[in-house]
Specification:
heterodimer, A: about 160 residues, alpha/beta, 7 strands, about 40% helix, about 20% strand, globular, B: Immunoglobulin-like, 2 helices
């Protein structure tokens, strides 16, 4: 019983620490990075300054990521022409698995490969998926840990409010 | 009666001119106060900007003191089209930089830009630099070239330029390493 309580307490502490680390990024300048994309081009976050950017960290082994991606694709298709960009950062060791999954799901937004996990360390990614919304000035405004049905409505509201700024 | 009216008009005129003079005086005083406030604000702004600049320079000096500072720059001088993809730098066997170039950045280098790819603190003595660049040349041909430089770090800052050039061998980009004096 004692061990169970200790394990539960430890889990709660780790979760709280993770959320704190992620939300403490809000208001800060989004750490800049460059990664190779699925088209072979290198893409750098700071070159999107002036646009609203959503950075979505995902992996092929993550079930909620699979659920969320088609909805992100809809957001991208809808708002890309008015200054919204979506960067899907994949953290799998094998980029081929990621390519297979994006073909399967029919994803068109840029996918970047972070197989060395350098960018995910920079953003303290400990929960998958993790979604970061960056405003036109390059500041992190919202951080979402995980995905549950209904989150896409929050994303929609936040994207629209950032586009209006 | 006439005398009384004339005196009344004279007094009214005098009172009016005194009021107008007082008003002018007050306006002049407030304009002067505004100007002096504006001058103070401008002076304060300049002081803040100067302080900001001094703090920035101090921070750089503290983090990268001139006597141990080494900076590495990338430049390009290619006749044939060469799309630079990445440059990696190892100093004394340790990878210190692995920079991915976007199309925009590579284009800036081709147009004559110089990129400070890495800055470090090194002790005086012998060191080894290994730089590798990868990219695509004409006809989509992949290139991967490296260069090694053994250098001596003395007292004072050191600047090393890594130039990607095809002047030595046409259609073949190579690294040329130059140390700036």
């Amino acid at each position: 019983m004692k061990i169970k309580n200790l394990a539960l307490w430890l889990m709660v502490t780790v979760f709280a620490a993770t959320s704190l680390a992620a939300t403490s990024m809000e208001g800060q300048l989004a750490p800049d990075f460059a990664l190779k994309s699925s088209t072979g081009e290198n893409l750098r976050l700071s070159e999107y300054r002036g646009d609203v950017v959503m950075i979505n960290f995902w992996a092929t082994w993550c079930g909620p990521c699979r659920q969320e991606m088609p909805l992100l694709e809809e957001l991208y298709a809808r708002y890309e022409r008015v200054g919204f960009n979506l960067l899907g950062v994949n953290i799998d060791d094998d980029a081929n698995k990621a390519m297979q999954m994006i073909d399967e799901l029919g994803v068109n937004f840029p996918i970047l490969f972070d197989s060395r996990k350098e960018v995910s360390k920079l953003y303290n990614v400990e929960t998958m998926p993790m979604t970061v919304l960056v405003d036109r000035e390059g500041r992190v405004r919202y951080v979402h840990l995980g995905y549950k049905p209904g989150y896409e409505n929050k994303y929609l509201d936040q994207i629209r409010s950032l586009l209006r700024e | 009666m006439t005398k009384f009216l004339i005196s009344l008009i004279a007094i009214a005129g005098f009172a009016f001119s005194v009021t107008a003079a007082a008003q002018d005086g007050a306006e002049a005083k407030s304009a002067e106060a505004f100007r002096s406030l504006d001058r103070e604000v401008q002076t304060l702004k300049k002081e803040v900007l100067d302080l900001n600049r001094d703090l920035f320079l101090l921070e750089e000096e503290l983090l990268f003191p001139a006597n141990s500072q080494v900076a590495f720059f990338i430049s390009m001088d290619v006749g044939e089209y060469f799309e630079l993809d990445s440059v990696s730098i190892r100093i004394d066997g340790k990878e210190v930089s692995n920079y991915l170039y976007t199309l925009r950045e590579a284009d800036a280098l081709i147009r004559g830009g110089v990129h400070r790819v890495h800055m470090a603190n090194l002790k005086t003595g012998d060191h080894e630099l290994v730089a590798v660049f990868t990219g695509k040349g004409p006809h989509d041909r992949d290139y991967r070239r490296g260069a090694t430089l053994k250098f001596k770090k003395g007292i004072g800052a050191k600047y090393v330029e890594l130039e990607i050039t095809d002047r030595l061998k046409k259609h073949q980009p190579e690294f040329v390493i130059k140390e700036w004096e």
